[in-house]
Amino acid sequence: MTQQTVHRLDTDSVSKSFIRYLVPSTIGMLLMAVNIVADGIMVGNRLGPIALGGIGIAVPVYTLFVAMSLWIGIGGATRFSALMGAKRVDEARVVFSHAIVSIFAVTLLIGLLAFPFRTELAYLLGANAETYPYVADYLYLMLLFGFVFTLENALSILVRNDGSPNLAMVSLVTTSLLNIMLNYIFLFILDFGVMGAAAATLIAAFIGMLVLCTHFFKKTNNLRFVRFRVNRKLMLLILVIGFPSFLAEVGMSVFTIAHNNVFERLAGTSGVSAFAILNYVHSVMLLMFLGMGSAIQPLVSYYSGAKDHAKIKKTLQLAIGTAIAAGTLFFVIGQLFAESIAGAFGDFPDSVLDLAVPGIQLFFIAYLFMGTNFVMMTYYQSTGKIRMATWITAAREIVVLLILLSILPVFFGVTGAWLAIPISEFIVLLTILYYQRRWKGK
Question: Which residues are listed as membrane-spanning (predicted)?
Answer without folding.
Answer: 21-38, 50-74, 95-118, 138-159, 166-186, 192-213, 234-257, 277-303, 315-338, 358-379, 391-411, 417-435
